[in-house]
Each structure stands twice: as structure tokens, then as C-alpha cells.
Amino acid sequence: MFEVFMFGAQERFIDRALTHFEGQDNALSAFADPEIGKSKLVVDFVDALFCDFSFDNIGGACFVLQALANRPVEINCIKGTIGDVLLQLAKSTFTELLIKRCFEGLELIASYDFRPSAI
Q1: DSSP structure class, residue 112
Q2: Residue range 10-45, pLDDT digits in tens
Q3: Are 32 and 106 in contact (CB under 8 A)?
Q4: Contact 74/82 with Cβ under 8 angstroms?
Q5: Contact of 90 with 9, CB cutoff 8 Å
Q6: Residues 6+ positions from 26 with CB-CB distance below 8 Å
Q7: CA-to-CA distance for 56 and 70, rounded, in angstroms?
Q8: Coil, strand or helix at 54
Q9: What one-character-per-residue DSSP string does 30-88 give?
Q10: For the segment 37-46, what is each residue's pLDDT rounded down to a tens digit?
């Protein structure tokens, strides 16, 4: 179930990135930047996605964290209630994976020299 959610998020975000960054070359460059996960574009997308799928609560956070339980994580001064901490951790872990998968997807598109405007 999580993989379906992840794939849909990846597809949506690649489409958004291609539009926002005006093409795959610019999008690839943007995704190569280690600070991309802190950008308003990414933060707003993940917040909206979690809200749309009703994952912006403890249950949703636990669903995401359970699916990503084997991924390494580093926690730097996350403060708040247990629910807040779980949600922040779920969003940050999900964001990291989303960026990685989108970068890989954009590289794959580039390797096939696929240009959406050519269709």
C-alpha cells in the first residue's frame, strides 16, 4: 500500500517539478541540491500530500514510519508532543525518500531523452 502512495507522490511531484523548474535539466539540477528538501516547493507539496491522504495525524505518521522503518534517520532537536514529533519525523523521512526517487525518475527520463512537449 505504501509503495502505491509513494509512486503516486513521485509521479505528481515530478510533474510539478518539471513545470516549476521549467524542464527536466533544471529540475535535475534542483534535485541535486542537498537543500531542496527545505524549499517551499517541497515542504508545501509534502504538507498538502499528507493532508490530502489524511496522513497529517498520528495514525498517518505511524503508517509512513512503519513503511520506512529500516531507513536511517538523524533527529536534530525535534520538539513538541509525541504526535508532533512523529509527524515531523514521518514528513522529513518521506521527503528524503521522495527527493531521492524523483531524482532517479528524472535521471531515467533524461537517459531516454524523453521530452513531454514532444508528444
Answers
A1: T
A2: 999 999 999 999 988 899 889 888 888 889 999 999
A3: no
A4: no
A5: no
A6: none
A7: 21
A8: coil
A9: HHHSTTGGGSHHHHHHHHHHHHHTT-SSHHHHHHHHHHTTTS-----S--S-HHHHHHH
A10: 889 999 999 9
Percent of the chain with pLDDT over 90: 67
Sign of CA dihedral 43, 44, 50, 54: positive
Does the structure show a pLDDT above 80 at 117?
no
Please state whether the predicted TM-score (pTM) of the whole model is above 0.85: yes
Q: Count of residues for the chain?
A: 119
How buried is residue 24: exposed, middle or buried, by Cβ count under 10 Å (0-12/13-18/19+)? buried
Residue entry with cell 539540477: 29
Assigned C-alpha cell, 73? 534517520
